[in-house]
Amino acid sequence: MLAVQISELRFVTEEGVSVFDGFSLSVPREGFVWVVGPPGSGKTLLLRILLREVQPQGGQILLLGRNIRRVSPKSVRAVRRRVGYLPEDPPVLSGRTVQGHLTFKLRALGLRGEEAADALHRALDLAELKGFADQPAKELDLLGQKRLGLALALCPNASLLLCDDPLRGLAAEAQEELLGTLERIHQGGVTLLCTAREDAPLLARGFRPVPGGKRTLVYLREPVRV
Description:
Oligomer: single chain
Helix content: 25-40%
CATH topology of the largest domain: Rossmann fold
Order of helices and strands: EEEHEEHEHHHEHEHEE
Strand order of the largest sheet: 5-4-1-2-10
CATH architecture of the largest domain: 3-Layer(aba) Sandwich
Shape: globular
Radius of gyration: 17 Å
Number of domains: 2
Distance between the termini: 36 Å
Number of helices: 7
């Protein structure tokens, strides 16, 4: 079964730049897939299309089995509760601890009591932040802030995680640590679709450009003017 299926995606900007022209992508439910491309190749745009923040001109998009170009806004909200999103620069609020960030989101979603406690524990565990729950978020280094962003994206119970260039800005050692965290999240039963500018650290981890595989690299072409 597929967590993400994109078929014949087409997107042209208002300036007449063709970013996607017949682009297709499949991510299995057990998959960990990286979309690799230079700046401006459409990596962030692709995730925004999946989140239905941007509408393409053509193509079919199935997200956790739902055609997100066709379903109602209410149905999209229901799907989004199962989809976590890590932006390129995760927001960090002043005056809140790591746990405080997660509690704030869970309460905003209406979760209380045991259900909220279970979601919080799962997020801290998978994001490797259990020892940092009471630390002010602003005191975390960049790696810690990325992990906090992952924990927030996992709340309350995400089964699919979209990550926009999570390795950007990290030194090589920190990249390896974050890749280890992403592997832990994947082993915890979460499907991952991430973007990256470079493939070297991913190739070193065993990812290969094998269409439809569970540990796959997908390369984007440069946009062209039409």
